[in-house]
Amino acid sequence: MSRPKPTDQLTLQTAVFSGDPAGADCNDNPQSCNRYGTTFSFSGGALWMGELQYAINQDKKSAGLPGFYKLGGWYATTDFADQHYGLNGAGMVVSLADPTAARPLYHRGNGGIYGVADQMVWRSDTSSLNLFMRGGFAPSDRNLVSFYMDGGAGIKGLLPGRADDVLTLGFAYAKISNDAAALDQDTLIFNGPPRPIRDEEMIFEVSYQAQIAPWWTVQPDLQYIVHPGGNVPDPNNPNATLGNALVTGVRSTIKF
After folding, report:
1. The model's pTM
2. pLDDT for 203-220, tens place per residue?
3. What is the pLDDT of residues 83-127, one digit of tens each?
4. Domain tally for the chain?
5. C-beta neighbour count of 103 within 10 angstroms
6. Considering Cα of 131, then 205, then 201, then 82, what sign does the dihedral take?
7. Cα torsion 111, 112, 113, 115: sign
8. Phi, psi of 73 (to 5 degrees)
9. Less Cβ crowding at N or C end of the chain, within 10 Å?
10. Is 136 inside a domain boundary?
11. Has residue 5 been placed in a domain?
12. How deeply is 178 buried, as exposed, middle or buried, from its count of CB atoms within 10 A (0-12, 13-18, 19+)?
């Protein structure tokens, strides 16, 4: 991994990883195959990553509001199966929903680009407001999700006497690739209903991180998920799609 820093504001990060860190013979959970992270596999190609970071007003004495921006990309050198098409016994390209499809159609390589922005837009002596956003693109023909973005706002010190607490409002959106949705449409043609067409998943979230002590935080969290899995069949009722979901939880962190 390389991390040159041309200026105080700019940082360039580059890295290369094994494309199959669990090893070529792993047919189980990769975490089980490479439990201790000591398998150095040369199978599965390589994963290359690069990221340019731009930080502004990071010094505590800076008069301006701090911000952090990232632009990055990744490329994997191995083969990836097409989300829509395969090959039949004669080597002709057909839909994977076609009963004559014998094997997937593979593409050489896969990649994507992404960006991150986190900017403080207001602050007082005891409070501040940050806006954040992330997004990324990947080829539709070899990825289940071709576009993703999330964003929101973080408000620190919203309540009097609670300067270290943070209220976060956020959302996330994941688009199922057009090729994966086209496969669903073909499956509906070949097999008939019921067959939902996958489209997107959205999440709306609110959380409050309370600083109970300098070493202890408690963070209740509430999420509402629209189209879990991107509008997939309900495993308990194949005639219906999986309904929207409400998820609640609490996270506690203790620092020693």
Report:
1. 0.89
2. 999 999 999 999 999 999
3. 999 999 999 999 999 999 999 999 999 999 999 999 999 999 899
4. 1
5. 12
6. positive
7. negative
8. -155, 165
9. C
10. yes
11. no
12. middle
